[in-house]
Amino acid sequence: MAIAMQATALTLVRLRDDAAASRLAVEARLSLGLSARVAFAPTPSGPCAPR
C-alpha cells in the first residue's frame, strides 16, 4: 500500500510541475475555447508530429 501511495504522489507532483511549466500554452488553448482536457494534453513534437 505504501508503494502505491508513493507512486501516486510522484505522479501528482510530476503532473503539477508539467502544468506549471506549460501554463502559458494551456491558458492560450483555453482562451481559444478548447476543453480543459484538450488544453492540458501534451502537444506532440519531433519528427513524427502531425503538421
UniProtKB/TrEMBL annotation:
Record-given protein name: Uncharacterized protein
Lineage, highest ranks first: Bacteria, Bacillati, Actinomycetota, Actinomycetes, Streptosporangiales
